[in-house]
Every structure is written in C-alpha cells, then in structure tokens.
Amino acid sequence: MGISERNLASYLRTARLRAQRPGPLPGSRREEAWAAARRAAAFIRERCPSARIRAFGSLLYPDSFGPHSDIDLAVEGVEWPEYLRVWSALDEREPAFRIDLVDVGIVSDGLRTHIEREGVLL
C-alpha cells in the first residue's frame, strides 16, 4: 500500500516547514548548559565570595534554548578588573558554551529589572 501523490506532497511540505523552525533543543544540551552555569557561578564565588550570580535569558526557557544559545549570567559584587579576569577565565573553563557575563551595575534599568524579576539565583 503506497502513499498518494497528494498525501506525499502534503507530508513533504509539512516536513520542510518543521525543519525550518528552530524548535526546542534536546534536553541534554540544555542540562549541560545549566551544569556549566552552576560551575561558572561556583568559580566566580571562589574568586569573589560576596558575588551574586543569576542566570537569565534563553537558558531559562526550554523552547528558546537552541544549538547556538549562549549562557547569560548577571553578576553583582565583582569589581573591575576582576570582572574581566573572571570572564576571560570562564571562556577557558567552559569551552562548550559561550558565557555572556553581565555586570548588573552598568546595564539599563529595564534589563536590571528583568534580571531581578526573572533571573535564577545560582
């Protein structure tokens, strides 16, 4: 029993549309990103014990975290130039993920409010 040309065309059209949608990433990559975020937070606290670190951005939303997503971390209590040294070290410590480290003290009020409201304290 075969598939009709009409059904095949419909199937192929739908398959193409699905392939174009980014969709959620398999759970394991996102779980690895969460583990990397926790390791990064622990490293930051080793260097700066009073630091507060929050994860925010696509990592918080399974449908938004894709194969090219980075890890967004917001930090408070890390002084310059230690902030730059920590950020640079994170690149070497977590090569599987790009980590964007955001200093909450210099971001816009809107982003700060978003981070405080939605960010996950690590």
Could you list some keywords that capture this structure?
122 residues; alpha+beta; Beta Polymerase, domain 2; four-stranded mixed β-sheet; 4 helices; 4 strands; 48% helix
Describe the structure.
The chain has 122 residues and is of the alpha+beta class. It has one domain: Beta Polymerase, domain 2 (2-Layer Sandwich), CATH 3.30.460.10. It has 4 helices and 4 strands, in the order H-H-E-E-H-E-H-E. A 4-stranded mixed beta sheet has the order 3-2-1-4, sandwiched between helices. Helix 3 (82-93) links the parallel strand 2 (71-76) and strand 3 (99-103). Helix 2 (27-47) packs antiparallel against helix 3 (82-93). The radius of gyration is 20 Å and the shape is elongated. It starts with a helix and ends with a strand. The mean pLDDT is 87.
Estimated helix fraction: 40-55%
Secondary structure category: alpha+beta
Tell me the number of structural domains.
1
Taken from the alpha-carbon principal axes, the silhouette is elongated
CA-based gyration radius = 20 Å
CATH topology: Beta Polymerase, domain 2
Number of helices: 4
| Mean pLDDT, all residues | 87
The main pleated sheet reads as: 4 strands, mixed
Spell out the blueprint of helices and strands.
Layout: H1 5-20, H2 27-47, E1 52-56, E2 71-76, H3 82-93, E3 99-103, H4 109-118, E4 120-121
Parallel strand pairs: 2-3
Antiparallel strand pairs: 1-2, 1-4
